[in-house]
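Reopening this ticket.

The earlier resolution said the output was attached, but the attachment link was broken on my side. Pasting everything inline this time so it's all in one place.
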Amino acid sequence: MSLWESLKSAWQAIFSNKTRSFLTMLGIVIGVCAVVLLVSLGQGFQVSMTTTFNNMGASALYISTSTDKAVTSVRPLTLDDAEALQDKTVAPSISVVSPTLSSRVTVQYGNNSASVQATGVKPVITEIRNYQVDQGRFITDQDVSARSNVIVLGYQTATDLFGSESAVGKSVRVQGSKYQVIGTLQKMGGFGGDSYILMPLTTMQSKLTGGGNNVQQIAVKAVNSDLVDSVISEVTSILRNRHYIRTGAADDFTITDMRETLASMQATLAGFSLFMGAVGAISLIVGGIGIMNIMLVSVTERTREIGIRKAIGAKRRDILLQFLIEAAALSLTGGLVGLGLAMLGATLMGNISLGTTTVTPVISAGIVFIALGVSIGTGLVSGTYPAFRAARLDPIESLRHE
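Inline output:
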């Protein structure tokens, strides 16, 4: 029997017992659907996190005051610290320094209000963070030097306050004071979502945090990505000297390396995806056992047919191939149905909001090939024993079988 004839025979066997075939495939359908959906969600989450880190500056470093309780004496970060990090004679590896201040505020426009994070920045922050202006403009050096009452709205804040109406040029109230909206930003997503406002650093200092020289965070960027380790060394040396930290004492500041954070997050998410895939694979094992059981029943039911085929010249490998193809066809059909259901489910899910992070399931070509490959493999493994059993049947005894 040729391969084509074996395939035709397999499909005839499947369609001649539709209900039994459907129930046999159900385990594979559920297994493939679960594996594809869970892995696609994991990949979608991984893509979302990578985008977030890229928006934050993949080679950027963020310096903040240490919260380690073991550090007994902590000096706050100041604008003077940020100024010192810009000294090229002691920090030649640093290209950009951007101090920031943040506070939780309430923004009001008409009857609409939103509780958001307000961050005071300088224009240079755009060389580190991937802020993309949607409408209007970003904060300028003139806004900073004049302490202007101007703000830029994150995508979600603009939507919450203004809906489809343009926000640029309108006035809003931040903690009761009047500010003019000079721009809105494109959607970025990520940990903080898009519910925030940006204003000149000097305005933030004088109007919302009560003045002073302190800052909450200093973002720095290396001249190039190969010098990030040098930047860490230079920042540590400069700040330890400025904060009078004795040799052997712990730093009173923390440096967050986005590369390490991203690598750690990706490793965690990859393990999480693997775990979710393994959970879904349990259904595939159950489905494989179901196929093996049905194929054994089929061998028993078709013993006489096997005897007739052997009597007219069919060889063992023909019988073996026929039952293996039937098992693989059952499993592949179940895999295709499961894949279709997973794609439908991913489409219906759309964008899933997990806190401030939006996750879109990603069904890549790799997932599709792996899902179909695993389903075919499950069928072949499950059908091997029944196929060998059928191939080894004695033709005379088979013909006597009732």
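Reporter confirms the inline version is readable. The first strand starts at residue 60 and ends at 65. Residues 258-301 form the longest helix (44 residues).
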